[in-house]
Design a protein that fits this description.
The protein is mainly alpha-helical. Helix content is about 50%, strand content about 10%. β1 and β2 form a beta hairpin.
Length: about 190
Amino acid sequence: MRYIPLDQVPDLLAELSRASHDRRWAVRRDVAAILLGLHGLRSAEIISAQRSDLATADLMVRTVKRGNPRVVPLRQGTKMLLDRIVAAGPVSKWLLPTRSGRQLRTSHLRRRWRTWSRAWLGRPYGLHALRHTSAMLLYSDTKDTLLVQRHLGHRTLNMVLIYAASLTDHRRYMPDLTGQQLSLFG
């Protein structure tokens, strides 16, 4: 499955909330990274975020693909956690550095997330599933494909249409990438 089932998201958020109060700085940092994934960031965008990218309630994201740079509004709890991490962490240009101040590696986040998703959700999910989940949640709330496209920094609507199709009634028709009408199940 490419995204976390939407009915499991409240359980995930509850687990992340509990973990965000861990006394260990590195655990809180990793929770913040997972929350940024739920805000639609790719793993490389998470580790590449710099302290200077964090504005009042937004994060400037320089996309790693050929998409558009974007400003991602942060939920208040995520912004507060990031502020606490920056204040308590090592001096570094990175928003979520290692304990020694170097850039975090995506392999670390992937391992941590697989461990947590297995324990919290009953099966391991890839880190990119958080990005897909973000898109699914935003689309299910708004039904606005252009908003989802801008939020994720996609250059085209093609990927967004996949999210939309996943949430629609499968007896309906959807446009394929060439504009022809295709039934999802014949």
